[in-house]
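> forwarded from #structure-qc
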């Protein structure tokens, strides 16, 4: 009797290609679009400075959209491994203070996790079976 898992299709590299494509797109924008490069450099300089007033002022330029952008960053982080969740939490705490920053970080993590769960629920096990290797599926 054959194992049902062995009847599944071979591994597909679509998730790897999507992640690599997103990274190539971002790198391409960085080198080919001067305004994007300047914005990334400014953000990196400010966010790595560790100066709370400077970070808070930069984040406050987004106004009431700041927390929404932060939550979107948490969602994007879930799909792109190049963004560190600890950095996002640190930015939130430095920009909004320990209480509000922690609250926005918690909301961001919950929303991002809910989006991930929702995608998994909507796409179902057929998607997982078609796009991930059998060994990975067994681990899940």
């Amino acid at each position: 009797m054959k194992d049902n898992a062995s009847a599944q299709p071979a591994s597909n590299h679509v998730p790897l290609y999507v992640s690599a494509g997103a990274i190539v797109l971002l790198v391409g924008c960085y080198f080919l679009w001067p305004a994007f490069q300047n914005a990334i450099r400014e953000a990196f300089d400010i966010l790595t400075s560790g100066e709370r007033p400077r970070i808070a002022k930069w984040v406050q330029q987004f106004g009431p959209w700041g927390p929404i952008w932060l939550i979107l960053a948490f969602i994007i982080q879930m799909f792109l491994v190049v963004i560190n969740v600890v950095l996002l939490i640190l930015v939130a705490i430095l920009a909004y203070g320990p209480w509000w920053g922690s609250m926005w970080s918690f909301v961001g993590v919950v929303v991002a996790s809910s989006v991930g769960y929702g995608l998994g629920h909507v796409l179902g096990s057929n998607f997982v079976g078609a796009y991930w290797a059998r060994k990975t599926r067994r681990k899940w």
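QC bot note: Confidence is low (pLDDT under 50) at residues 5-10. Helices lie at 14-32, 34-47, 52-60, 66-79, 85-131, 134-139.
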